[in-house]
Amino acid sequence: MESSSQSPFRFLHVVSAYLPERMSKDLAVLCSSASTEALLDNLIRFVSGADCSSLSNEEGPQWASNQALVRQKLSELLSPSSTLSRKRLRDEHDLSDSSEFTKKQKLASSSSAPDGVDIDYPRFALKSISVTSPIRKKVDITIHQSTVRFVNSSTGTLEASVPLDSLRRAFLLPTRGKPKPHWTVAILSNDTGPEKNGKNKNIGGGDSKFEQVIFGLDATATSAITTTTFVTADSAESTSLKKGDETLIVLTEFLSELSRACKSLPNPNHISIHHLTIEKIDNFRGFTGSSSSSSTTGITLSPSLAISANLAAKSGTLWFMPSGILWSESKPCMFWSVEDFAKEEDVEGVRTISATGRVCTVVLTRNLLRDDDEGGDESIQLEETGFGQIEGKEQEVINQWVRKYRYLFGTGSCDDGGRGEGVTQAQAQAGPLTINQMIVDSDDEGDDDFNPENDGGSGSGSESGSGDEDQEYEEQEGEGEDVDADADAEGESEDEEDEEGELDPAHHPLLRPGAMPKMSRAAVDVVAGMVEQDLLGGQGEEDELDD
């Protein structure tokens, strides 16, 4: 080969001399003829900005103009803003670059990330979903290894990010008041909502930062919906729902993947904290009406019922579930777990108030763990929340729910372990309570709470209680024969209760829906006297009450 300074193909020879050995050998194989060498030499001249070794008069202007365009494009490719964003797709410091983040969401064609970069790989993605919280936009929702990310569908900009270890409860509910079936997904980081004055400890777990994820989908897809499942960090499988397909399967898959991601968080010392409780109501009958008239029907179709209510000036829905009560369709969503409700010896956990009978108010009272300002010690206090403008006919339905799950009120402590057991126990409870169960639950709560005047159907229990007191007194007096008689009577009463077992509503009128215990004649006379005094405008009412 001629000297590079004298050869007509000196540009080619210079490049070949400094190429890596393997590439230089491959280039020598290509240069098998003079025409090939001339073509490659002119290519290098064109890229480097040199003149062509042999050009006709027609090719001269075209060479110069096109050469300038190519050099400009090559300079753009060599700029740091483009090369670094493409090579470091997973670097957290480059997430502010919109073009880089758009590329990151298309991981099917990307390469593996180098050491020391973001390892929060994606797991599952829903494309173009209208979100209400934490932002109000149409975004792509992606479940990552440790976060849920919300990316602008158009620009690829990261709009919001929620840590997985802050999420505690998820709900899949029918959206009420919509003209056509619609699903709502609500995911909560704690039960109480935003902290008040920075003192409240989160009930149901959760970090101090309040996070909620709320979005929805039509039950029938109005357009194509794409989901992406990431098999590895670099490969993904996409599926699409056609217009008219049911979207419930997509939402169920999303929540299932979210639960798996929470359970796989790398924190072995706090595994129980990462448990995500999921509640689903996967039917629309009895729940999709714009008014609360359908809630009474809903309680017979499932363990839950939905009632329209107002919290301050905001309207929403109270969902009465076996595990507790959810306030939704108005931000922020809040949840009252059955085991967090106050016990009856303190104050009623759920009570209804109605002055006219047309509308009523529901007051929810729960145990709340607070930090004392001075000593820093934690103490349990009561928090009350009132919901108004509820139709009066819903009052009895609410009372039915309270009677069914009252035995769980106050059973949980203010830690995650107690709460988990309470939720499981509430979900396992099904069917109406029998009289025997009601008696046992009442006895378990303590004898001090027992009031024979307020218990219309517990005569045997009252007799048994009085027998116990007589027995203790007579033991002190030494009357052994009376003690034996009372003990025998008590044993017979317990045997009768054991023989009753599970009661059949067909043979026991008090177990039938809407049944009320009979009032004594004395009680009727008292009520009639009070009404008579009101109608006649009697002056002695206050004196009688004082006496």
TrEMBL record:
Component of the FACT complex, a general chromatin factor that acts to reorganize nucleosomes. The FACT complex is involved in multiple processes that require DNA as a template such as mRNA elongation, DNA replication and DNA repair. During transcription elongation the FACT complex acts as a histone chaperone that both destabilizes and restores nucleosomal structure. This is Histone chaperone RTT106/FACT complex subunit SPT16-like middle domain-containing protein. Belongs to the RTT106 family. Transmembrane segments: none annotated. Residues 89-103 have a biased composition (Basic and acidic residues). Residues 441-452, 466-503 have a biased composition (Acidic residues). The lineage of its organism: Eukaryota, Fungi, Dikarya, Basidiomycota, Agaricomycotina. Residues 84-114, 440-517 are annotated as: Disordered. It holds the Pfam family Rttp106-like_middle. One of its GO terms (molecular function) is nucleosome binding. Residues 304-412 form the Histone chaperone RTT106/FACT complex subunit SPT16-like middle domain. PANTHER family: FACT COMPLEX SUBUNIT SSRP1, HISTONE CHAPERONE RTT106.
